[in-house]
Amino acid sequence: xxxxxxxxxxxxxxxxxxxxxxxxxxxxxxxxxxxxxxxxxxxxxxxxxxxxxxxxxxxxxxxxxxxxxxxxxxxxxxxxxxxxxxxxxxxxxxxxxxxxxxxxxxxxxxxxxxxxxxxxxxxxxxxx
Length: 128
Hints:
The protein is an all-beta fold. Helix content is about 0%, strand content about 50%. Strands 2, 4, 5, 6, 9, 10 and 11 form a seven-stranded mixed sheet that branches. It has a four-stranded antiparallel sheet with strand order 1-3-8-7, with no helix packed on it. Strand 4 and strand 5 form a beta hairpin.
């Protein structure tokens, strides 16, 4: 059974940092892409950052480029999202997700509609 568990969310002041973790189990990690998504109240779920663990390719939304860094530790089946210089507009529930169909074809996708397995989410709140 595929399972994803997020952790590391919390309350931080603008300009601060958080590191989110996504622990995966139940599948061969190297065969999947892992993505971080977020959803703020009244907003659509959007892709934040994605990674293909085996190939090392990454995606970042324009709104987080230069501030967020995604990384993976394949031995631990864990993906991290280091978030620096946080802004109030980063406030959202952050989810990690996994997909294989596109990853196995060498394509890294960032749409939440294309990801199959989801964690429960972790709240990130950035105060002004």
